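ping. complex inputs:
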Amino acid sequence: MNGAEALIRSAVASGVDVCFANPGTTEMPLVAALDRVRGVRPVLALFEGVCTGAADGYARLSDRPAMTLLHLGPGFANGIANLHNARRARSPLLNVIGDHASWHLAADAPLTSDIVSLANPVSGWVRSVRCAENIAADTVAAIEAALAPPGQVATLIVPADCQWNEAGGVAASARRMAPAAVASDRIERAARALRDGDAALLLGGVALRGAGLRAAARVRAASSARLLHDVFVARLERGADLPAIERLPYFPEQAIASLGNLRSLILAGTREPVSFFGYPNVPSRLAPEACERIELAAPGEDVVGALDALADALGAPRDVPALPRVERPRVPSGALDVATLGQAVAALQPEGAIIVDEAATSGAVWFALAGSAPRHTVLGLTGGAIGQGLPTAVGAAIACPQRKVIALQADGSGMYTAQALWTMARESLDVVVVLCANRAYRILQLEVARAGIAEPGPAARALTELSNPTLDWCALARGMGVPAVRAIDAGSFVKEFSRALADPGPALIEAWL
Amino acid sequence: MNGAEALIRSAVASGVDVCFANPGTTEMPLVAALDRVRGVRPVLALFEGVCTGAADGYARLSDRPAMTLLHLGPGFANGIANLHNARRARSPLLNVIGDHASWHLAADAPLTSDIVSLANPVSGWVRSVRCAENIAADTVAAIEAALAPPGQVATLIVPADCQWNEAGGVAASARRMAPAAVASDRIERAARALRDGDAALLLGGVALRGAGLRAAARVRAASSARLLHDVFVARLERGADLPAIERLPYFPEQAIASLGNLRSLILAGTREPVSFFGYPNVPSRLAPEACERIELAAPGEDVVGALDALADALGAPRDVPALPRVERPRVPSGALDVATLGQAVAALQPEGAIIVDEAATSGAVWFALAGSAPRHTVLGLTGGAIGQGLPTAVGAAIACPQRKVIALQADGSGMYTAQALWTMARESLDVVVVLCANRAYRILQLEVARAGIAEPGPAARALTELSNPTLDWCALARGMGVPAVRAIDAGSFVKEFSRALADPGPALIEAWL
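pong. complex structure:
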């Protein structure tokens, strides 16, 4: 068995079952090994940012180690933006990067680069394989690192000779560590703060799934605490049978106002909230200076157990309080704008939908309206690196083939990784892309206005408008094998969206805003 | 004057006249400054790899500092692959990256990352601006670094508060250093080797332009030396009125055979040739072990002066020897394949064309046939990071608006940065894209065969074929505003290519191979 086969066999034994790949010459032994070893589905993407974003989406939904296969430094670099998002999402990822044969590195051939320096900013764990005999153990170590709670990006650099040389064999499969329990004094401190009043819980990580939300709802029922989540979440379970919680506003002035009266902020599976960007005369930290920050459970600790213990300490009943009924907006008619678009999606999204939200300014109305729609999952733009939506939808659809994936996608962001559409077509993925075409980097136009520029000049307009020429997303989608239609009013959007939801396989609707 | 304006004014004073930009919130003061200061043309790209590749193409042709404006770590990361190519091309680039306000970095907001670690592998010079007062001097230092012979990538990280705070003013404009002269003992050593026979000159950098090639031809006329260039060149001037030189083969076995009899290899503006990849039982170094390596002029030294001095030392006449006549292949008919495609382009390319060659396996015939076509410039894939062709064509067309740019583009590589088509349309650039559609990563299929796999399995096929679905490049181009047609035989290619050459503005021909 050569090193490549030892790597793939070790990965399979540790739970890897998909490989999001864009390989090159230095990965050819690994490609050949994917043909010799059963158990890994190779998924080709035509750009590495699709691989890494898809792996992130797959990891968020499956909680399995999500593998990528990438080509040297420049290939890896193309995947960095979505690895940045994956790092912020704390997704368990295994990047495998082929490198030049170890003896060829000194030649400084054209594709040689410092891969470690590129990998460090987005990886919690980085290792270069030193010889084929180590490859199995290194692979298992990488997967264990990726799975270590709360999850992280692990990057394994594999010189080509370590792939083609003879290896010892397969290592024992990776162990999955349990999240660390939270000590009782932290539960008691949070309980005291809640009894004092004017407190909020900010939830993140697994606290945003069913068990965590139900435990948090018990805490709320036994206190007057507000329940909050960050603007951008890795994965939020939401909808009728789950307790609803508040989203922090995006712009810092609004977030600061929202948190203005808090005496204490209890952090459960996330970090203290900070402004997305720094602005003149606006603080980085969103909670008031005087507000006490209490870490109930850090990311990677047993946040659900801590929330249940906290509810118990407050004397909350075991039963989750009564929930609001399913309630949807009416199906809209008239003009198509961000309001009617959000209304239509919230009115029609099916039970169990996975909503990948990279709609930016076009998505806020949907988010607000869909809170009491039937049960659904939201995947957000955790790291703010745009170009995450379409790739993440690919990974979500592969992780959950029985569920409908709806990608709410801004046009500006969508152009960074539009190649994901091709992979949707090749793999026949059940994804409906709602392409929100406002023909602008609208968020930047808002920022220009926030900076006090009432009349943007020609440079500011040139750099924030996507018109001239207008993108034709239907042509782009068809060019990559995805059926597409344009909707120019609410009625046609409702009709096309309903049809796309009813049909399996990928479809794109260009919502002309 | 705020820091942003001081930066732009200093850049203009030092020769910057174009900014290839994909800005975000942290660059808004710089965007506003582009409206207050005259002299910089802002060019928007919808993906950062287009910005960096365009800057590279612009720099190769203009020898001016080529500026990019990029958004934080993830935005910069999207530009790394083409910066890798620019680094290998030794192009003078100025990357300006906005970062969070300095006081906001400690908050570790979602988009925060270690930009320096990302920038180092592709930059010869990296600096973070510490305060607005420094910004003008830092900008000039960055441009001087970029222009230092032979040219390099300089990366300036500018926190948002350094952009919006009050700055001192504009610094003195950047000085351009002359290349260092070569000492006479190196000339003499090379002359001795040439007199001994079985010698070759490997030319790179400015040696591949008119004066360098003419000097090298004098050396050849006075000795029996072969004149060679690397497979992938930053910029090669070529065609009828210039001496023809040999290209080293791509695969190492062929290159080793080609160099097998050499007693000495004289390096003029480039490094010793090495294999593009490492293969089992193939050495990294392509020249024989016993062959003497003689560095006549390192990159950044006065290579043209050294070549002329060498010719003088050999007693060569001042006149350049007689040149071959312009000779073109006949316009082909029949089936369209890599042979007839190459024949058609070489037969029809206009005088003064700039050929951006990322055609990979589809481009070799053209390269061989066009050597005695009318004068033209070739821009090659210096770093091997694919996705360089279309962006570089953007930059070439902006640098040389009076010349026709022909992008010979492989389909697999083209998909990495197809967003460049939109910028071609917006800027009405005079680029003809010859999209070589073989619906495969053909080079990888060759590598699979070279690895001894006669019958690729389903994984190897899935990861090297671009069929299922077939990309429709005409739809993709039209979706981004570029007129496009498909050519399915040599006759229709000749007709469409002739028409595109005659019409100004961008056009894409999908050559169906």
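Residues 3-164 of chain B form a domain with the Rossmann fold fold (CATH 3.40.50.970).
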